[in-house]
Amino acid sequence: VKGSIGSSFLWGTGVGAYQHEGDNPESDWTDFGRPPAGNSAGFLHRFEEDLDRAASLGTNAFRFGMEWSRIEPRPGERSGEAVRHYDRLVNACLSRGLRPLVTLVQFSLPRWCGGWLRPETERALARHAAWVAEHFGDRVDLFVTLNEPNVAASAAHVGGLFPPGHHLRFSDGDRALLAQLRAHAACHRAIHDTFARVHPSRSPAVGVSMQLVAWHAGGWDPGGGVRSMSERFNWGFLDALADGRLRGARRTVHVPEALGSVDFLGINYFMGRKASWRGALEFAGLLGAHPAPCRSDLGWPIDPAGLELVLGEAHRRYGLPLLITENGVADANDAFRARFLEDHVAAMQRARDRGARVEGYFHWSLLDGFEWHEGYRGRFGLYDVDFVTQERTERPSADTYRRLVARARSVGETPRADNECQSLANATRGEVNDTHRTA
Ligand code: BGC
Fold it and tell me: 324: closest CA among 337, 340, 308?
């Protein structure tokens, strides 16, 4: 089937390119990140042993990024060394029974492109996507074009957290989102056209990963402004894939080429939040998180039931196959990750029971890594990384995931757990019921 993921459920873990590889001299983050990413987890050189770890969890898929700025350090010039590296990485996945899911852009761009407000970035990425499809398409058939265009646009132009680090430039944020929408559509087409031409017997599935937050009513939001902003944050880009219209704060832009340019939706889910001014400012990084129970080390509110909510809503809106491309928690002491895993996998299962077409779950992350503006503060790994010695240590929750996956794969379904973190769960249940009534 054109663009289908296949019959077996994908259980995976993931790492980013810029975040975990280390040694990325040509990225726009190289000069921007404070602290600099440096060697990070050193995945660039340690990928063989790390893939052994991923395989030891019993998973059958692995998500990783190919760092565009490494492959194409100067416009139109490809690095043979980088290409050989990614050849080895892809082959190492396949030899361990891990189906590769390749992300083309996870925030970091080659520094020569100059960001999403330059039109050349869109065209250059589409050319790059065609080349990736041609070169790796004999072995890779699952692609995420862009990781979280909604976060990339707002963190760069509103929250000041990503390059170029601007604050409150809402219209630039809208333009960056529009540029990414066009770029995604162009990549989708480029990958499909290239497969048809070069690998005609194979059919790729091309998606985009969006960060979806379970926004809950409540808190101070006079006039419902935050509520509608948060709606647009979650669904604006995806709605445009369904109807070719990108709705911004002030105007709607027609983007006909976006219509239908997606085979699956990647969902990155980390938290629920109140759609209130406080919740929105905290989320945008403009206000510090206040510590509270049921929050991660980064202060992100843990809300497993919210995952069921967003999966149900994504299904209701689009009916497309869904892959959970990121779900995880910053928890250096591994105090609540095991519970987090069980509760979120159970929430996913409930959504599936109610019809959502979830076809894979990739835990984020296999390894601790560089967490963008948070530096090395958020530890998301099933494996702890010592960033000085590069030593890895398995956290106890890795074994929880191993057991969850083993149980699911042995019975051919996803497992259940019955109780969960109560932080926002009651509010969420209310909303789930509301969703049902209006659906
Ligand atoms: C990003 C990841 C990041 C994670 C945790 C997500 O928004 O896609 O790159 O590691 O958040 O910070």
Answer: 308
User: What token pair was written down for 435?
Assistant: 């969703």
Residue 84 Cα to ligand 1 middle (Å): 27
According to DSSP H, which parts of 5-116 are helical? 18-21, 43-56, 68-71, 80-95
From the CA of 328, give the closest atom in ligand 1.
Answer: 5
pLDDT of residue 418: 36
DSSP string, 321-371: -EEEEEE----TT-SSHHHHHHHHHHHHHHHHHTT--EEEEEEE-SB----
Q: Which atom of ligand 1 is nearest to the CA of 211?
A: 7
pLDDT tens digits, 342-355: 999 999 999 999 99
Shortest-distance Cα residue to atom 4 of ligand 1: 371
User: Tens digits of per-residue pLDDT, 249-258?
Assistant: 889 999 999 9
First to last CA, the chain: 29
The dihedral of CA 331, 334, 339, 344: what is its sign? positive
Residue burial 371-393, b: 16+ Cβ < 10 Å; e: rest: bbeeebebbbbbbbbebeeeebe
Tell me, what amino acid is at 150? N
Name the phi and psi angles at 311, rounded to 5. -65, -40
For residue range 128-143, what is the model confidence (pLDDT) as tens digits? 999 999 999 999 999 9
The pTM score is 0.93
- The pLDDT of residue 172 is 97
Centroid of ligand 1 to alpha carbon of 193 (angstroms):
30
What does residue 106 show for φ and ψ, rounded to 5 degrees?
A: -115, 85
**Residue 371 CA, ligand 1 centroid: distance in Å:** 7
36 CA from centroid of ligand 1 (Å) = 17
- At residue 226, what is the residue type? V
DSSP state of 143: E
Q: Which residues line ligand 1 (CB under 6 A)?
A: 16, 19, 106, 147-148, 151, 211, 268, 326, 371, 378, 380
